[in-house]
């Protein structure tokens, strides 16, 4: 097991916005990190330090200017956008600070849709969605649209959606940042429970040091690097 390739590996990742212009902003300059299977890792850094930028690059939502991104030992940088999208869909779950659920679809449909996009037959996708929603205590809310869910409920649906395709890696960008402390705690319990049960690997950006302390370790960012 220990010689299995890391689930996620970033090597010397650099990223600047507005490159070559007077307004150039260097955000990452040699960010390196390794996540092994089953690790639950907090990413803690001040606002503007580059947490979202790093998570978007790790989640194949953006490309670095230089450096390497590997998933399960496989280099993602040389892949076409199509293959990166397929890898993202099948292997990575992403939870944002806002739930970003599709407003005109029910909670269940929001968990079904990414599975259909990944080639899962509708019946199996629906069973999986119901299972997940039941697991996070939302069986009775499956038919609700996002507008008819509380913030904490909507974020639990977003967690289910992220896990729908049984990814190997969960990335979360301040997933409880919009919630009051008690609700944040509840959503976080659900998230940690699912990560632990499924042996998933997770990297979770948070400003909440109490939540960070409940993870296996904490990575800090400063000056474009990961400490
Ligand atoms: N599209 C963009 N164009 C120019 N600059 C950007 C862009 N996106 C982000 N930045 C800058 O990059 C820096 C890092 O932003 P990022 O969103 O990664 O920080 P963060 O650590 O996630 O902060 P927060 O805790 O507030 O979410 C910031 O200084 C930001 O202003
Ligand atoms: Mg951010």
Tell me about this structure.
The protein has one domain (38-63, 85-226): 3-Layer(aba) Sandwich (Rossmann fold), CATH 3.40.50. With 227 residues, the protein is α/β, with parallel strands linked by helices. It has a six-stranded mixed beta sheet with strand order 6-7-8-3-9-10. The protein has helices spanning 51-58, 81-91, 107-117, 122-135, 151-163, 181-198, 209-213, and strands at 8-17, 25-35, 40-44, 66-71, 74-75, 92-95, 169-173, 201-205, 217-222, 225-226. Strand 7 (169-173), helix 6 (181-198) and strand 8 (201-205) form a beta-alpha-beta unit. Helices cover 35% and strands 25% of the residues. The protein starts with 7 loop residues before the first strand and ends with a strand. Bound molecules: adenosine-5'-triphosphate and magnesium ion. Magnesium ion binds at residues 51-52, 173.
Strand content: 15-25%
- CA-based shape: globular
CATH topology: Rossmann fold
> So how many helices?
7
What is the level-2 CATH architecture name?
Answer: 3-Layer(aba) Sandwich
Number of domains: 1
Rg over CA atoms: 17 Å
- Would you identify the regions where 5 or more consecutive residues have pLDDT less than 50? none
Q: What series of H and E elements makes up the topology?
A: EEEHEEHEHHHEHEHEE
The number of E-state strands comes to 10
- The N- to C-terminal Cα distance equals 25 Å
Structural class: alpha/beta
Hetero compounds: adenosine-5'-triphosphate, magnesium ion
Query: Quick one: CATH superfamily?
Result: P-loop containing nucleotide triphosphate hydrolases
Question: Strand order, biggest sheet?
Answer: 6-7-8-3-9-10
Query: What is the overall pLDDT average?
Result: 95
What's the story with the biggest beta sheet? 6 strands, mixed
The CATH class label is Alpha Beta
- Helix fraction? 25-40%
């Amino acid at each position: 097991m220990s010689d299995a390739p890391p689930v996620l590996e970033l090597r010397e990742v650099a990223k600047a916005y507005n490159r070559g212009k007077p307004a150039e902003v260097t955000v990452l300059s040699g960010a390196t990190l390794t996540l092994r299977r089953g690790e639950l890792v907090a990413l803690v850094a001040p606002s503007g330090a580059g947490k979202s930028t790093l998570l978007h690059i790790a989640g194949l939502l953006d490309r670095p200017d230089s450096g390497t991104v590997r998933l399960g030992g496989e280099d993602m940088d040389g892949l076409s956008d199509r293959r990166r999208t397929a890898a993202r869909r099948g292997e990575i779950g992403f939870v944002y600070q806002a739930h970003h659920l599709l407003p005109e679809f029910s909670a269940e449909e929001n968990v079904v849709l990414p599975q259909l996009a990944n080639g899962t037959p509708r019946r199996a996708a629906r069973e999986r969605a119901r299972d997940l929603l039941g697991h996070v205590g939302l069986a009775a809310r499956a038919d609700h649209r996002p507008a008819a869910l509380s913030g904490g409920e909507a974020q639990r649906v977003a967690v289910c959606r992220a896990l729908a395709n049984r990814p190997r890696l969960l990335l979360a960008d301040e997933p409880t940042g919009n919630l009051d402390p008690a609700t944040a705690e509840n959503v976080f319990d659900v998230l940690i429970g699912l990560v632990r049960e499924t042996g998933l690997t997770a990297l979770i950006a948070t400003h909440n040091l109490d939540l960070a302390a409940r993870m296996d370790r904490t990575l800090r960012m400063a000056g474009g690097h990961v400490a």
